[in-house]
Amino acid sequence: MNESSAIKIEETKPAGSCCGGASAKPQAGPLEKAFVALRNNMAWAVTGLAFVLLAFLDTAQVPESLAFVARNLIAIAPFLGLAIGLAAYAKASGADGLIAHVFSGNLGMMIVFAALFGGLSPFCSCGVIPLIAALLSMGVPLPAVMAFWLASPVMDPSMFVLTAATLGTSFAVGKTIAAVGIGLLGGYVTWALQSKGWLADPLKPGVGNGGCGASSVRSPKAVQWQFWTESARTHTFGKEALSASLFLGKWLTIAFFVESLMLAYVPAEAIAGALGTGSVWAIPTAVLVGVPAYLNGYAALPLVDGLIGMGVSPGAGMAFLVGGGITSIPAAIAVFALVKRPVFILYIALALTGGTLAGVGYQFLVI
Questions:
Q1: CA 259, 262, 263 angle in degrees (round to 5)?
Q2: Tell me: the pLDDT tens digits for 318-338?
Q3: Would the pTM of this model clear 0.70, i.e. be above it?
């Protein structure tokens, strides 16, 4: 494996994302180490600054926001525990390595299985990047990879549980269907374009095979459903559970704090006017807003719940979650570093189109 290529892929991970933060070089000075630490904890730093400003500008709102965060964390705690357990179990048992068996056989069926697996796999929009690099470098057809790539960030088992707890089971089911649907759309559109001679050799030169983040694809291991019979897997379960707890706890705490400020200070009439049921541009606007505003799938759930409570249409909320999950700025940066420009443009176009269709479908076919 080309060492520089592996490092290049790892550096596409946004600091503080679900994929882990950057680390300072061993010989780095105090200032560089402090900068790396700040970058990796930027979400906490910004939230802390917002809290200090809130205490200075509107002291009376501080206990209200703290109580709001505590109430919501307690309410969602059982579902959060289940989500953490699912994520840790998938890692410890080796179930996340089943992806290696999906990309084989007839291309048409491969796209279907890739979209289905993508809608159920425990990979976020950034964490899936090393896997994509490995799959493409191994010669897996781009249409099948695109199907998995688009579906994976939208839904996973943990996300389903928390979406159902926050926005309702019907919303969670609709989002799962949207994940598979956008994967199918992307896979077959990409297949049609490649049949015309476009999108050949999608990876940028020197990208490599995904580094250590894609080892489960290159060297799949047997799944051990009863992982507790092996001490190493039990250790992995505990480590992953702790990591997921810290990650989800951080983002949900921040999200509930932001939601409390939104409910206190953002005029409901303005939001409902821009993204409410009466606006013809509500759903496409929500998709576009998701590009810069969507930071994390778990943090977005309480925010969308708050927006719907303020009059935003459920279809716009669905569009924001689906489109934003795929095209968020951290994910887009990682994708841009991985593939050539035509593939990147297609990825963004499919995400925006799929997000819009998901919002329209949920609004008019389900609601």
A1: 90
A2: 998 998 888 876 677 667 777
A3: no
